[in-house]
């Protein structure tokens, strides 16, 4: 994926990913409640996302539709993190994540299952 979204644009995308197709007004209402943005700020970010090809808008009511799935953005952001901070080494990222906090038995079991599926 070659669309780079900034944190503020990701907030707009998160509303669409969580709630599905929404009007620009609804997105604005949600983000006003969540982060205190006014309507103009949200509409500007929607337009930026449209220019980048992340959102498609249609009538009536400026209905917005996410053109890229959340999983694609997560994958691209994870790859960028691995390349930028962990010298391209996914195992260094994995070790850093595991070392950050105590994991529950369930979480450890889940991770073992994921690793098992990769082998």
Question: Would you give an account of this structure?
Answer:
The protein has a three-stranded antiparallel beta sheet with strand order 1-3-2. The protein is mainly α and 119 residues long. Helices cover 66% and strands 8% of the residues. The radius of gyration is 18 Å and the shape is elongated. It contains six helices and three strands; from the N terminus they run H-E-H-H-E-E-H-H-H. It has helices at 7-19, 24-35, 39-51, 70-85, 90-100, 105-118; strands at residues 22-23, 55-58, 63-66.
- What proportion of the residues is helical, as a percent range? 55-70%
Q: Which residue ranges are poorly predicted, with pLDDT under 50 across at least 5 consecutive positions?
A: none
Span of the ends, CA to CA: 26 Å
Largest beta-sheet details: 3 strands, antiparallel
Give the strand line-up of the largest sheet.
1-3-2
**Mean pLDDT, rounded to whole units?**
91
The number of helical elements comes to 6
SSE pattern: HEHHEEHHH
Question: What's the arrangement of secondary structure elements?
Answer:
Layout: H1 7-19, E1 22-23, H2 24-35, H3 39-51, E2 55-58, E3 63-66, H4 70-85, H5 90-100, H6 105-118
Antiparallel strand pairs: 1-3, 2-3
Summarize the structure.
The chain is mainly α and 119 residues long. The protein contains six helices and three strands; from the N terminus they run H-E-H-H-E-E-H-H-H.
